[in-house]
C-alpha cells in the first residue's frame, strides 16, 4: 500500500508540473520567459485545411479553414482568442531573416547584423543569420509577443538569405544552423513551427519542422521535393499566386496534382489579403 501511495503522489506532482508549464503566462518584457520548456506543441496532420491572410483582420472576418496564418504584429490577442473560439488553430507570420522598417523592435538589433535592402520588398533589410547570438534578444522578444497573444505556431519567413544578395556571405549550411536554432526556440516554448520555402531543406528538415508552406511550388516545379513531409503525415501547404497561375489553370491543372500528392493547395493574390481560392 505504501508503494501505491508513493506512486500516486509522484504522479500528482508530475501532473502539476505539466499543468504549470501549459499555463505559463508569457511576459514580452521578460527575456527569460522563452527558457521555460513546455512538454508539447501543436503538430498538425497532413490534410488539414489552411488559409493565409496578412491584411489587418476585421471583427467581421471569418474563415472556413481549420488553420489560419496571420500577421504576428497586427493581430491582437483578442483576435487570436476569437479565432480559437471558432475552433481554429492560429499561426503567427513572422520574418526571421529580415527586419521591416515598420516594426517597433528594430532597436533590438545591432547595426552590424543589418544588411542590404531586400530588392523585392524595399521596406525590408536582410539580417546576418550567421550570428544568432546577436539576433537572440530580437528573436526572443518576438517569440514572447507571440506567446502573450496565444498563437499556436510560427511561420518563419525569409530563411532563404543564402540565395539572395543579403550583403553577407551566408551559405546553405548557415541556414541549416539557423533553422536548428529557430526550431528549438519554438518547440521549447510550446509553439509549432513550419518550413517556409527552401525546398533543399525538405528531406532532412521534414523530421524537425511541423509542416511546410511554399510559394509557387507548382509554378516553379519544385513540388515533388516536398514529399517527405507527406510520408511523415505532416502538411504540405502549396500557395500559388494569381500573377503566375490563373484560377482556371489552378483548378484544372494544379488541384489534381496537389490532391494526388496529398498537398493542400491554395490560390492567393500576392498581396495576401483576405481573398482565397482552394481546390474543391
UniProtKB/TrEMBL annotation:
Domain of life: Bacteria
Glycoside-hydrolase family GH114 TIM-barrel domain location: 49-275
UniProt xrefs under InterPro entries: Aldolase_TIM (IPR013785), GH (IPR017853), GH114_TIM-barrel (IPR004352)
Entry keywords, A to Z: Hydrolase
GO molecular function: hydrolase activity
UniProt name for this protein: Glycoside-hydrolase family GH114
Record-linked PANTHER family: ALPHA-1,4 POLYGALACTOSAMINIDASE, PUTATIVE (AFU_ORTHOLOGUE AFUA_3G07890)-RELATED (PTHR35273), ALPHA-GALACTOSIDASE (PTHR35273:SF2)
